[in-house]
C-alpha cells in the first residue's frame, strides 16, 4: 500500500477529511494567499495596461500572450524538472513564490519612478509566468503525497472552493483598489500573496518517504540524462493521448481555454473602451463568477454519489460552458446597469458549472495517472491546454482589431460552448466512481 504523510483511516471506515492533515492545511493556506494575490492581479494587470499605460487592443493582446506563452514553452521542461527532482517539489514551489513576489513588486516601483512601459510589462509578466508553470506542475504532483487517495476529491474541492472564494474577494478588492488608489497599489497585494504563500509552504514537513534521498541529483552522465528525459517525455505524452479519461478532458480544456481567452479579451475591451464600465463594475462581474465557482466547488461533490461521477462532470460542463452564450444579448440591454446585470448572471451560472466540473476533472486526472507519471502527464496536459491560451489571445487581438470587441466576445462564447462535446462523446459520462478510473 502506498504510504502517505498523515494517518489514514481503516478501509472500512469513512476516510478522514483533508483538514485532518497539518501539511494539507499549510498547503491550503499557501494556496489561499497566492490565489488571492493572483485574483487581484487578474483585474489590476489589464487595467494597469489599459488605464495606466494606455495600451491599445493589440498591446493588450500581446500582454495576454506574454502572460500565457510560458505555458506553451516552459511546460515540458518544467514537467521533466519536477519529475527528475520529485523529492524537491516543495522547494521548487517555495522558490517560485519568492521569485514571483520580487518580479511583481517591480511593476509598481517602475510606475512610480516613471520607467514603466509595455515592453517592461511584457518581460516581467513573462518571467513570472515561467515560475507559475513550475509552481503549478509541482503542486499537482505534490498533493497526492500529502493526502490519501480517498481524500483527493475532498482536498481538491477545498482548494477549488478557496480559489473561488479568493476570486470573489480578490477581484472585488482589486477593482476597489484600482478605483480608489491605483493599479500599481493593487499589484503590491499580488506580490504580498506570493510572499505569504512561500512562508506557509516552508512550514510543510514531509516524512521519510518523501524526503530527498542522497541520489536526488541529476546524473553526471549528461547524454544518459537526455535520453532518459526524452523517454520520460514520450511516456507522458503517450499516456495523455491514449488514456480514455484524460484525453477528452484535455480536448475540452484546450478548446475552452482558446475560446475563453478570446471571450475575456473581447469582454475587457468592450467594457472599458465601448461601454465605459468602471473598474468596480468590471470587478463585480468577475466577483459574480467567483461566487458561482465557490458554490459549485464547495457543494458539488454532494451530487456525485447520487448521480455518478461522469454524469455530474458532463452536466456541469454543459451548464458552465453554455452560459457565455448569453453575451449575444449584450447589445440589447439598453443601459449600463442592464449590461452589468446580464454579465453578472452569465458569470454566476458559468462559475457554478465550471466550479463543480473543475474539481471532478482534476481529481479524475490524478486518479487515472500513476504517481510516477504525474509530473510528465501534467506537463503534457498543460502544454496543450494552457498553451492554447496565448493562441487564443493572439486570435482575439486580431478579431478585436479587424472587426470589433463585441465580435471577439461572441466568437469566444460560441467556441466555449462547443468545447463540451469532447467529454459528451467520450467514456467519461459512463464513469460511476472515481476509483474506476484507476483500473487498466
From TrEMBL:
Membrane topology: Multi-pass membrane protein
Keywords tagged on the record: Cell membrane, Membrane, Transmembrane, Transmembrane helix
Pfam families: MFS_1
Keyword NAD: no
Keyword Transmembrane helix: yes
Subcellular location: Cell membrane
Chief location bin: membrane
Parts of the chain that traverse the membrane: 65-82, 94-114, 249-271, 277-300, 312-331, 337-359, 380-400, 406-431
Matches recorded under SUPFAM superfamilies: MFS general substrate transporter
A Gene Ontology molecular function term of the record: transmembrane transporter activity
Gene Ontology cellular component terms for the protein in this record: plasma membrane
Name recorded for this polypeptide: MFS transporter
Organism of this sequence: Actinoplanes auranticolor
Lineage: Bacteria, Bacillati, Actinomycetota, Actinomycetes, Micromonosporales
Amino acid at each position: 500500500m502506498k504510504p502517505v504523510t498523515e494517518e489514514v483511516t481503516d478501509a472500512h471506515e469513512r476516510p478522514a477529511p483533508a483538514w485532518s492533515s497539518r501539511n494539507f492545511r499549510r498547503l491550503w493556506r499557501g494556496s489561499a494567499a497566492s490565489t488571492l494575490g493572483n485574483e487581484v492581479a487578474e483585474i489590476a494587470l489589464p487595467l494597469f495596461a489599459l488605464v495606466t499605460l494606455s495600451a491599445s487592443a493589440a498591446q493588450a493582446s500581446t500582454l495576454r500572450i506574454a502572460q500565457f506563452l510560458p505555458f506553451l514553452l516552459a511546460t515540458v521542461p518544467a514537467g521533466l524538472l519536477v519529475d527528475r527532482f520529485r523529492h524537491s517539489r516543495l522547494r521548487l514551489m517555495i522558490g517560485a513564490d519568492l521569485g514571483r513576489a520580487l518580479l511583481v513588486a517591480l511593476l509598481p516601483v517602475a510606475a512610480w519612478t516613471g520607467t514603466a512601459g509595455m515592453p517592461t510589462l511584457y518581460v516581467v509578466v513573462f518571467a513570472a509566468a515561467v515560475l507559475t508553470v513550475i509552481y503549478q506542475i509541482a503542486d499537482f504532483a505534490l498533493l497526492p503525497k500529502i493526502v490519501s487517495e480517498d481524500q483527493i476529491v475532498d482536498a481538491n474541492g477545498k482548494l477549488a472552493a478557496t480559489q473561488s472564494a479568493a476570486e470573489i474577494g480578490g477581484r472585488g478588492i482589486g477593482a476597489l483598489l484600482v478605483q480608489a488608489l491605483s493599479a500599481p497599489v493593487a499589484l503590491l497585494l499580488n506580490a504580498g500573496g506570493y510572499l505569504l504563500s512561500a512562508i506557509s509552504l516552508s512550514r510543510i514537513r514531509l516524512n521519510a518517504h518523501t524526503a530527498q534521498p542522497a541520489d536526488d541529483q541529476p546524473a553526471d552522465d549528461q547524454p544518459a540524462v537526455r535520453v532518459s528525459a526524452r523517454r520520460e517525455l514520450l511516456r507522458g505524452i503517450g499516456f495523455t493521448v491514449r488514456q480514455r479519461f484524460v484525453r477528452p478532458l484535455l480536448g475540452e480544456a484546450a478548446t475552452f481555454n482558446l475560446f475563453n481567452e478570446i471571450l475575456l479579451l473581447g469582454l475587457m475591451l468592450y467594457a472599458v473602451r465601448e461601454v465605459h464600465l468602471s473598474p468596480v463594475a468590471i470587478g463585480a462581474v468577475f466577483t459574480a463568477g467567483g461566487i458561482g465557482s465557490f458554490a459549485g466547488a464547495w457543494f458539488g461533490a454532494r451530487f456525485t454519489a447520487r448521480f455518478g461521477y461522469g454524469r455530474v462532470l458532463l452536466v456541469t460542463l454543459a451548464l458552465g460552458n453554455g452560459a457565455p452564450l448569453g453575451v449575444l444579448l449584450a447589445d440589447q440591454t439598453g443601459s449600463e446597469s442592464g449590461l452589468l446585470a446580464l454579465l453578472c448572471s452569465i458569470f454566476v451560472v458559468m462559475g457554478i458549472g465550471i466550479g463543480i466540473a473543475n474539481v471532478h476533472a482534476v481529481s479524475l486526472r490524478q486518479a487515472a495517472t500513476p504517481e510516477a507519471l504525474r509530473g510528465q502527464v501534467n506537463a503534457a496536459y498543460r502544454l496543450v491546454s494552457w498553451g492554447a491560451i496565448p493562441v487564443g489571445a493572439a486570435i482575439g487581438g486580431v478579431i478585436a482589431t479587424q472587426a470589433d470587441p463585441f465580435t471577439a466576445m461572441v466568437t469566444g462564447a460560441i467556441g466555449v460552448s462547443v468545447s463540451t462535446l469532447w467529454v459528451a462523446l467520450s467514456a467519461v459520462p459512463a464513469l460511476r466512481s472515481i476509483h474506476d478510473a484507476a483500473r487498466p
